[in-house]
Amino acid sequence: ADIYNWDNGVINDQWFSPIATSTFNVVGTDILTNCSNDAQILVTVNELPNVVAASIIFGQGTSLTPNICLGDSIRLVGNGADIYNWDNGVINDQWFSPIETNTYNVLGTDNSTNCSKNAQVLVTVNELPQILKTIIDERYGSDASINIDIVAGDSPFDFDWDIDGLGDIDDEQNLSGIQAGNYTLFIRDNNGCENRFTII
Fold first, then answer.
1. How far apart are CA 92 and CA 160, in angstroms?
2. Above 90 in pLDDT, residue 63?
């Protein structure tokens, strides 16, 4: 026809977003004869998939707000759809090691309806404890010392020197009155991030 009048406020050949499955009716009119006829179309509106972005941290299980240490492995997993496409090169449910804090987005698609929805997860990557050391070498016997400054990580810190065996996490930050040799220092910060240093 020449003129088309739709119900439900629809304008012919104009984009709109129906919010529910509905039948839309149109009356088409021929200008020359002024004759009209009607037609209708059923528009099915499918629900979006309920997509959730989660993470699996090695040794810790599932989390919606992952907080890891630099060097840790993590898997990002989409739930609520059939196909998941992540940004930043992430493959769904595959281990990787992020090097900095970042928000990762996933597009989940339902195979039966082809409807898609986004979700995202913030992965916080915490620095490992790092140190600056000041060493006074042994000169006259058991007069050496090691002083430590923490330059990365989140305080408070736990220290464990190997002078009494590693694993008890009960030592002070600095060592004094020691002999020449190799000393191993284990540090754990407030985020649970750990690092180990060998000092000569």
1. 38
2. no
SS3 state at 89:
coil
> Do β-strands 116-126 and 67-69 pair in parallel, antiparallel, or remain unpaired?
parallel
In terms of C-beta distances under 8 Å and separation of at least 24 residues, what long-range contacts does 33-39 make, across chains too?
36/1, 37/1
Residue 59 has pLDDT above 80, yes or no: no
Cα–Cα distance for residue pair 98/25, rounded to 1 Å: 53
Per-residue pLDDT for 106 more than 90? yes
Strands (E), 89-156: 95-96, 102-109, 116-126, 130-136, 144-152
CA–CA distance, 1 with 60 (Å, rounded to integer)? 66
Measured in degrees and rounded to the nearest 5, phi and psi for residue 179 equal -90, 165
Q: Are 169 and 159 in contact (CB under 8 A)?
A: yes
Q: Kindly report the backbone phi and psi dihedral angles of residue 164, in degrees, each rounded to the nearest multiple of 5, phi listed first.
A: -125, 20
Task: Indicate whether 101 pLDDT > 80.
Answer: yes
pTM equals 0.79
pLDDT of residue 58 exceeding 90? no
